[in-house]
Amino acid sequence: MKKLSLLLVSLWYVLALLISFRVTESMDEINNIWVKILIAHIIATIVIYIGSVINKNSSLYDPFWSLAPFPIIIFLYSISDINNLSTLNKVLISAPIIFWSVRLTRNWVISWDGFGHEDFRYIELKKGNKIKLEFINFTGIHLIPTLQVNLSLLPLYFLFNSYELSSLNYSLIFASSFTTLAVIIETIADEQMRSFRKDAKNDGVTMNRGLWKYSRHPNYFGEVMFWVGLYLMAFLSIKTPAWLILSPLSMLILFIFISCPLMDNRSLKKRRDYKNYMTNTSQLFIWFPKI
Fold first, then answer.
1. E strand or H helix at 126, and its extent?
2. At residue 20, does pLDDT exceed 80?
3. Number of domains the chain contains
4. Which domain holds residue 219?
5. What is the pLDDT of residues 95-128, one digit of tens each?
6. Is residue 285, in this structure, part of any structural domain at all?
7. Helix (H) or strand (E) holding 237
8. Which of 3, 94, 238, 253 has an alpha carbon within 20 to 30 A of 160's alpha carbon?
9. 168 phi and psi, to 5 degrees?
10. Is 55 within the bounds of a domain?
11. Is residue 286 part of a domain?
């Protein structure tokens, strides 16, 4: 069942990539690269939304978050020679993103049970009459997250269109290392949780070991750090507009006010010891627990 589900997901994403590429390729009147990327991003989202409706499962969208940046970074890398961007700097920008994309997609493949399962957050959101359900399904579950990711990837546009990175940039080395560290933190947190859940004795018990001793959501902390790292790559190494701070800030707001509370509320219902853990442990940032 899971293998068949993964095959269907793969086919839908290949179709989304081909259609979005085909449509934007013919838009010669649009000169701005990022506008074309945004349009392609939205077209691909619409294709995946149609697939979600056909398969009656919005979890088809789950890997979009990690898969969509991959072709974007490959495309930007391929056209960056016109700005005399050095190969080393291109690698420093691209490597952490590819690492993040592969890691997060792998984590989804391991965790997802196939079309027999749908994310509990989607089930909660999709309540009400048919019209309301589909409006929320398209906007809240598919389109808005796509726009969020597109906004958070915007520093890449300035990096790959800069003429300031023709030689080695030590600030970029620091920011790239910071971004890579963020992905490592995510990986460690996810592996610690996966190992904890394998033990049947831990059913109904809150994970409070390793990184989870210092944050209720260390995997989300690493995710936020990753998007901050993308911004730092641009901010520290080239000239950027002041409003670009919205890219990482919007992601931080998303996790603090939406993603973390949703997971906390779910855990409060499932684990009797979570309230005490929640009181004593930092929500997102890794910090010492209260004594």
1. none
2. yes
3. 1
4. 2-113+120-280
5. 999 999 999 999 999 999 899 888 877 877 777 6
6. no
7. helix 218-237
8. 253
9. -55, 135
10. yes
11. no
